[in-house]
Amino acid sequence: MDIIISCNTGKPIYEQITSQIKAMIMRGELKTGDPIPSMRALAKSLHVSVITVQRAYEDLQRDGFIETTVGRGSFVSARNKDFYQEEQQRRAEAHLQEAADIGRACGIPVEKLAELLRLFYEGEEV
């Protein structure tokens, strides 16, 4: 499992682990039922504390991405993708609400906001 830890992001290590594992699941690199390294093995390979990896695994389990069975280990959960997409959609909605509020307050036409969203979505420069 290729996880890259950076000390230069302001993001805690456990969050870096969590977000990278979520991304691997969403991209299909990790599939339902695939085993996840043990906490000790991952901590050793990343040169971090087992407690840090434990926190990441607890977050992944709470969010429905992995299931842990005593004596068997941790595995990718079946219910993760829909949950994650729903979570990300809520985040996008919050940002869109903020953009709509700014646009309304400043008199930016909704057509202009929609065009900007399309350009950003397609990765074009504005």
UniProtKB/TrEMBL annotation:
Domain HTH gntR-type: 11-79
Keyword rRNA-binding tagged: no
Keywords: DNA-binding, Transcription, Transcription regulation
InterPro entries noted in UniProt: Tscrpt_reg_HTH_GntR (IPR000524), WH-like_DNA-bd_sf (IPR036388), WH_DNA-bd_sf (IPR036390)
Superkingdom: Bacteria
Keyword Transcription applies: yes
Any one Gene Ontology molecular-function term assigned to this protein's record: DNA-binding transcription factor activity
Protein name: GntR family transcriptional regulator
The organism of origin for this protein: Candidatus Alectryocaccomicrobium excrementavium
Organismal lineage: Bacteria, Bacillati, Bacillota, Clostridia, Candidatus Alectryocaccomicrobium
